[in-house]
Amino acid sequence: MVWSSDSCNDQSFNQTRDPCVGLSTIQVSASSSQSAVAAAAALVNAVSSCCMNLCLTFLPPYLQPRKGNGYGGMPAGMGAGQEAVIFSYGDDEKRVAFLEKRDQNSSSSYSGGGDGAAAAALVERSGTVWTAVAHIITGVIGSGVLSLQWSVAQLGWAAGPAAMVMFAAVTLVSAFLLCDCYRSPHPLLGPSRNRSYLQAVNLTLGRTKAWACGVLVHTSMYGIGIAYTITAAISMRSIQQSACTTYNNNNNKKEDGACDMSWHMLVFGLAEMFMSQIPNFHDIQWLSNVAALMSLAYSFIGLGLGFARVLENGYVKGSMTGIRGATPVDKMWKVSQALGDIAFAYPYSLILIEIQDTLKSPPSENETMKKASTVAILVTTVFYLCCGGFGYAAFGEDTPGNLLTGFTHPHWLLDFANACIVLHILGGYQVYCQPVFATAEKWLVETFPDSILVRHSSVKLPVPAAGRNVEVKVLRLCFRTLYVASTTAIAMMFPYFNQVIGVLGGFMYWPVSIYFPVEMYVKQREVEAWTVKWVLLHLFSVFCLLLICFALVGSVQGLLTAHLG
């Protein structure tokens, strides 16, 4: 007696869609010498296989097993003999083994072959919830923390903390939506991995929206370079002013007012011109680690100084409604700028998928990332509330735009904190500009292959510190120098810390953190139009859009008012 997949096509198994397509032939032999038990067991196995395929009938198309190409939409890295059929969402070990094997093959293909060890190393992932939490906290906490006390001062004790909690909740919802976009087309089974935010947008929403997203992201990164130049110049000037004050007090001299921030911007820009010649993002990993450590150092120093000033004052300053404006309209603009500053303090979405790509599985990456996001945003929000709250409680109506500029002593600690800011900005500037460099230079090479900058690819420049001539690509030298010079020039034209940060926060937050994550989630989960989930997601997006438009308009108004005097 022989059972095969064709046995399912007789009258007893007649279906509109043959549930046994794709199964390898199952042979169950029963001879006259076989025992009745063995024959019955073979029959049960054959029937079970057909029943399993009946279950597969009701799976979405992209989860259907396909002979020779695994799951639908799989890259061509899996060849013959590497088919995989996964019948259980809970079968994590088999699922992960299959996906990792697929990723190694696709990575090898992507890199042009390479050796197997290099491909395996490329996809090796060992991250956990706690490593992801550490990455998120060090990536999010940065120069935005320096303006939070000013935001609380404009909003008051009632609305200030509430606004921070609201932005934290919105960011967490956005993170949950984005976590499910790491794998495509299914959040658990994939099979494709998205290793960056832009890659996820491109694969899920298409080339046109990916192009628009790329323009927004790279424009935002350019703006962050401007904001970082202003921040570094403020800290450098504070260090110089501290030294000037100490020198003048020791020598009974008056202040000469020689601390001009434009010179500090020029010095910072010159330093970044040299650092921008670092070839690519992978060569600045150590710089990124130093920058993260410095950001935590000055943030905790600012928090400690604010707490100490409150204890020194003996009471909490401030009011429920915040600093009064000259007119109600002026107050409204200040409130909108404050919201923009808070939005700038949550630059989370751009780095989420990159962090998720470091996580091991099982458990699934999206579940691990959701846990990490919850913990990290909770910790970050508590830290932000403390920094903003203690800063406002310490200064009240006199709250400065930059937290550290409000303190005058101890000089050594303030100088150290400002030095940490400068070191953080030196590295942070490169973290945000290197992706722009890579994209722009690739486009220039492909668009103008006959240009003299491309054909004469490199020159040798004498570097006394290195004791030798260093070879530098002409295109890199010219483009990156002009890029840094332009950010420095704009920073010198608009040296207004809070207003620039507000504009960037208003410009970046909604499209990057709300619109694209919502659209990707709707597309990936195939949420039908006008269902409850569809309506709630789009109401969430529209609410955030209106809020951010208010913040952006107010911040632009504040920037123009400050510039025009």
Question: What's the SSE blueprint?
Answer:
Elements: H1 36-56, E1 65-66, E2 70-71, H2 92-110, H3 116-123, H4 129-140, H5 148-179, E3 183-186, E4 190-193, H6 197-205, H7 207-250, H8 261-275, H9 285-313, H10 328-344, H11 349-356, H12 365-395, H13 411-447, H14 452-455, E5 458-463, E6 468-473, H15 474-493, H16 497-525, H17 532-564
Antiparallel strand pairs: 1-2, 3-4, 5-6
Give the gist of this structure:
Its main location: membrane. Helices cover 65% and strands 4% of the residues.
Keywords, separated by commas or semicolons:
565 residues; Amino acid/polyamine transporter I; two-stranded antiparallel ribbon; two-stranded antiparallel sheet; 17 helices; disordered N terminus
The H-and-E topology, N to C, reads as HEEHHHHEEHHHHHHHHHEEHHH
Give the percentage of residues in beta strands: under 5%
What is the fold-level CATH name, i.e. the topology of the largest domain?
Answer: Amino acid/polyamine transporter I
> Kindly, what is the distance between the CA atoms of the first and last residues, rounded to a whole number of angstroms?
95 Å
- What gross morphology would you assign? globular
How much helicity do the residues have? Answer: 55-70%
The total beta strand count reads 6
CATH class of the largest domain, please? Mainly Alpha
Largest sheet, if any? Answer: 2 strands, antiparallel
By CATH, the superfamily of the largest domain comes out as Amino acid/polyamine transporter I
Averaging pLDDT over every residue, what do you get?
76
Domain Amino acid transporter transmembrane: 126-560
Family: Belongs to the amino acid/polyamine transporter 2 family. Amino acid/auxin permease (AAAP) (TC 2.A.18.1) subfamily.
Organism: Linum trigynum
Transmembrane segments: 36-59, 129-152, 158-179, 290-311, 372-392, 412-432, 477-497, 503-522, 534-560
